[in-house]
Amino acid sequence: MKQYALFFLGALALTGCDDKTPTPPASQPATVDTGNPVAGVWQQEEQILVLENNGDLYLPNDAHRQGLHWDNDDGQFSLRFLDSEAMTVEQVTRQGQQQGDTLTLSPSTAPATQDTDSNTPASEPQFSGTFTRSNAAVAHLSGEIQLPPDSELPDQAFLTVSLLTDSDIVVKRVIPLDAGEPVPPFRLYFPSGALDADSEYQLFAQVLASGGIYYRSEPLTVTYKTNGFDPAVLALSAVMTDSETLAGTLVWQAGRTVFIPCNTDRRLLLTGPQQEAILEDFQDSAEYPHQPRQATISGLVRKVPGQQAGSTEAALSVESYAFEALKSACEQPTAEFANTHWQLTHLGDNAVSTADQERPPHLVFGNDSSVRGLAGCNTLQGQYEQEGDHLALSQLGLTRKACPDMSTESGMMDALKHTRRYRVEGELLTLFDAEDQAVASFQAIYF
């Protein structure tokens, strides 16, 4: 899951790069002699550099970087790559010398000297050292992309191509695309021996832009034979829908804001050119944390990569929006006050982090006027009285377990003692004190 998310976010870094390298023309595989003595496959222990004759750079044995482009200017090598951990496009420069089947790369500036008192030798910088030509170190899969007839690429689009097993990504490639130009052929390199001969794998591709998927292929089954893969052709289909205008409610759910169209249970993520603006206005206009707001939004409904590898979620690419007055005719899924698992999200205006907690703070109100839950460290139980929107809690008791950090528990208990009123809006529960100030907010969680 995390690997796929990093892949997608890293690809987005390419679209924001001002000096985006133009997509080079198709090239012969690096394992083929093209007459360029520097092009080829170079290996130094675990490092493998694949330098195609057209300037494409591949790093098939690097889990954290994807090669983009290489250039040799009279012995000065520039290597450009996507760092999937930092989500940035980086470039390093190396002085290089190629003689026969040996390529020596060294930093343009000398690395810092090692402490003379240390017995640990200085590690050689990445992309440095003596590399040996080793075409047998890698294998590859080549293929072509077919877009639907009369289709057009959006601005700042990129192609992602992935080779997958049933449970993991074997190798992936992000390729920037030029609007108005054909989609170039693709090639995936991987270390020899990384795949099982006579085994089947899935090949998948999609075109993304502005946070949404415009085109995607069905997974294509490919077989890895003793002599490699046969060339593949991936036919892509359009994913996006026509632009539409939807009325609904912006709500905070599971750590993110979603849009629920009126009278449906459909939940749309927000992407696109106005995403930041609508989220900022949504937050600024709230009287208390994540107060739901009704809005009318125009945009495209698209599929975007989901949290699980290979999955997708529906998203609305926001082109324009307007907040609306509360309309009773616009209903949204609503949780019941009683017998719902309410997980704590805010104390006052301050968000409560529960990411590293196995059992986050929560409350459950019973039909018998009892309340139970977890205050952060200790379990709690007590009684409540409810009449209309008035709510009072009493006889609150805690177990006596000691924990390193009791601040959340202390804040939650203080909020409960000062609660005088409550409001359920959709799947959000907010507790208010006698001054009508929000003291705690909770999200309905379903198991």
Core attributes:
4 domains; eight-stranded antiparallel β-sheet; 3 helices; nine-stranded antiparallel β-sheet; elongated; mainly beta; Immunoglobulin-like; single chain; 47% strand; 30 strands; Lipocalin; OB fold (Dihydrolipoamide Acetyltransferase, E2P); 447 residues
Question: How would you summarize the topology of this molecule?
Answer:
Elements: H1 2-15, E1 40-44, E2 47-51, E3 57-58, E4 65-73, E5 76-83, E6 88-99, E7 102-107, E8 129-133, E9 138-146, E10 158-164, E11 169-176, E12 186-191, E13 199-209, E14 212-217, E15 220-224, E16 232-238, E17 243-253, E18 256-261, E19 268-271, H2 275-285, E20 293-305, E21 312-323, E22 341-347, E23 350-351, E24 362-365, E25 370-374, E26 379-387, E27 390-398, H3 407-418, E28 421-425, E29 428-432, E30 438-445
Parallel strand pairs: 9-16, 19-21
Antiparallel strand pairs: 1-2, 1-8, 2-3, 4-5, 5-6, 6-7, 7-8, 9-12, 10-11, 10-13, 13-14, 13-15, 14-16, 17-18, 17-20, 18-19, 20-21, 22-23, 22-24, 22-30, 24-25, 25-26, 26-27, 28-29, 29-30
The domain tally reads 4
Describe the global form. elongated
Helix amount:
under 10%
Q: Which spans have pLDDT < 50 for at least 5 consecutive residues?
A: 1-12, 18-25, 111-123
Taking the sheet with the most strands, its summary is: 9 strands, antiparallel
Question: Tally the helices: what do you get?
Answer: 3
Query: Separation of termini?
Result: 21 Å
Question: How much of the polypeptide forms β-strand, as a percent range?
Answer: over 45%
| CATH topology value of the largest domain | Lipocalin
Compute the number of strand runs. 30
Helix/strand/pairing class, anyone?
Answer: mainly beta
CATH class of the largest domain: Mainly Beta
What's the architecture of the largest domain in CATH terms?
Beta Barrel
Radius of gyration: 28 Å
- Indicate the mean pLDDT: 85
